[in-house]
Amino acid sequence: MGLWAFIARRIAVSFVVLLVVSICTFFLMHASPGDPINAIIGERQADRPEIRENLERRYGLDKPLPVQYVYYLKNLVRGDLGESITTRNPVADELRNYVPATIELALAAMLFALGIGIPLGIIAAVCQNRWPDTLARFIALLGTSVPVFWFGLLMAYVFSYRLQWLPRSGQLDVGMKAPPKVTGLISVDAIIAGDWTALESLLRHIILPAIVLGAFSMGIIARMLRSSLLAALGDDYVRTARAKGVAERNVVIGHAMRNAMIPTVTVIGLTFASLLAGAVLTETIFSWPGLGQFAVRMALKLDYPGLLGVTLVVAIAYIAVNLLVDIVYGVLDPRIRIG
Amino acid sequence: MTGASETATLQQVPAVSSQQSKARSPLGDATRSIAGNPVALAGLVVVLIWLLLALLAPVLPIEDPEIVLLERKLQPPSLAHPFGTDDVGRDLVSRVIWAARVSVPVGIAVVAATLLIGSIAGAVAGYFGGPIDSVIMRACDAVLSFPSIILAMAIAAARGGPGLENAMIAVILVLWPEYARLMRSLVLTIKHNDFVVAAESVGASRKRILFRHIFPSTDAPIVVKATLDVGYAIVLTAGLSFLGMGAVPPTAEWGAMVSQGSRTGLQYWWYSTFPGLAIMSVVMALSFLGDGLRDALDPRRRA
User: Which residue ranges form the domains of chain B, and what is each CATH number?
Assistant: First the structure.
């Protein structure tokens, strides 16, 4: 299969998956015993049949499910994700408000995961079976087995409650005005506006959640890099490089790392999903105003349009990342393109 | 219980494994290999300790986990209460141990159900191929495109809000595709083996071939994955409970306890810390054990 045919095929498959995803969530949520109308009426203490009918008509809940789905899909294509039942705002607007915070946090977490995970993986591989290896593997294991929500509380306790080095919650200090919105990423906006106090405040706020969120990916990356680097270090070309007198440092970084990074890049792409999942818990603990926190609020209120919107956006992001990883992989390794 | 069920699965394996005709039993190999692997052994011991604690909680010399004594609420760890007491004065040692009776069986039950659903779906997809295969695999793709906890939240919400049962169903629905995929790939490699061809040639039905010949040969990778996943299932369920979508108070459950502790206040660190350590010890122990089993059961890795 040629490269372009491969890419076209992968994109087509992604669309099919996306459609299946939307059908799944839609029917799942509408088949539920929880009643969103009750949730509203309960709040307003006014359970009269006319109100109920009005609300059902307003949200299209009186139509048959397949019809509701077709409406939903039509609106979706137009970028209309419906209206949140609890906040009464268009879901698309809500998401636009929450997505940047999650992207910012996920990027910071990935930075942490790479910054610690890659050196750990290299150290572990180079010092195979000696104490630095054991230590590195232990740290990686801690990262992958510590429950995110518990680790978050631990970090909050140590660094913000006990030592008071870092703030406990939010993105900026209380009362501080966010820089004018350009990209929605506060760090970038602060740099654009030249607002260094806001930037500093954001950085101090993002450290703890980023470490907590990145810990899992850090462990995965370190482990993957260690094993693929060990495999690469046993290859003939590494022996050749050593034989011709290349410094060990260059053998590892220049020769073995290049090949070891290929599987690691795949894993990095795939841990993106775990970042989004971890974001739900991390954002809840650190009151980070992102998608995860929004999702929890919607789920607890049984707010279907809101929850449906989040799941969809996250699934799209995940499918897109997977597509990208597959394409990169297909470019790097032609054998992947078959099948 | 994990130990016992693994043993059971391993014993059922007939000696028809195609690559291996010598009289070495997989169970014997696994036992020898685990016994010679201190890390895996430590994992096994920790898992067994938790199982024992869970099993024996009612007869252990610990307090009733439901005894409320407000005058001793939120006491830090002491000799009398090594893990301290919670916001209504219940002894946390006792509650952490009693919570094992919830969290550990939940993890095992979730993985058992996941395993059953996933491996049957995967085996059917792999063995029959064609449209059934496509439908099952696209469903897997769809489920796998959600981050687990978000999908689990959606499912728990769709099932009408919080409750341990809803959380468990959510986790099962999130995890089965991984088994389906693994099983499908195993079946695809096994179905062209000589013993399958032989069974076909003597006229065995497709159902019989699938369940009597192919299934038993897939045990090793599946057992390893299941062991590792019990820990994952525990963490995921605890995470849902932490978010308020799982176990409901007053049930002692590790995730819910961490959550209650965090809401009570960070200064009462012991409230969240010990249930969290309990989760982590189980997860790490299972991961040691799972890695050990992988080494033990994978012939290629055997030195």
Answer: 53-70+81-301 (1.10.3720.10)
A window 55-84, beta carbon within 8 A of B = none
The stretches in chain B having pLDDT less than 70 are 1-27, 160-161, 298-303
Greater confidence (A294 vs A40) lies with A294
**3-state DSSP assignment of residue A83:** strand
Residues of chain A contacting residue B266, judged by C-beta atoms under 8 Å apart: 153, 156-157, 160-161, 168
State the pLDDT at residue B17: 47
Token output for B270: 């012991």
Point out the residue among B147, B154, B157 whose CB comes nearest to the CB of A273: B147
Question: Are A280 and B157 in contact (CB < 8 Å)?
Answer: no
Using the Cβ of A251 and the Cβ atoms of chain B, whether some distance falls under 8 Å is answered with: no
Q: What is the DSSP string of B193-232?
A: SHHHHHHHHTT--HHHIIIIIIGGGGHHHHHHHHHHHHHH
What is the spatial distance between Cα B239 and Cα B245, in angstroms, rounded to a whole number? Answer: 9
Question: How would you class A160 by CB atoms within 10 Å of its CB: exposed for 0-12, middle for 13-18, buried for 19 or more?
Answer: middle
Q: What residue ranges of chain A are covered by domains with CATH 1.10.3720.10?
A: 92-300
Nearest-10 crossing angle of helices A91-126, A131-145:
160
The residue that leads in pLDDT, B195 or A60, is B195
CA distance A166 to A158: 10
Q: A138 and chain B: CB distance < 8 Å anywhere?
A: no
pLDDT at A61 exceeding the cut of 80: no
Quote the ipTM score: 0.80
Note the pLDDT of residue A38. Answer: 66
State which of A159-173, A309-323, B19-33, B273-287 shows the largest mean pLDDT: B273-287
Q: Count CB neighbours of B220 within 10 A.
A: 21
Superfamily of domain A92-300: MetI-like (1.10.3720.10)
Residues of chain A contacting B145 with CB distance shorter than 8 Å = 17-18, 21, 315, 318-319, 322
CA gap A310, A91 in Å, rounded: 9
A135-149: pLDDT as tens digits = 999 999 899 888 888
Give the confidence band of A231 by pLDDT, cuts at 50, 70, 90: confident
Q: Identify the helix (H) or strand (E) that includes residue A175.
A: none
Amino acid at A338: I
- Contact (CB<8Å) A21/B273: no
Q: How confident is the model at residue A104 (pLDDT cuts 50, 70, 90)?
A: very high
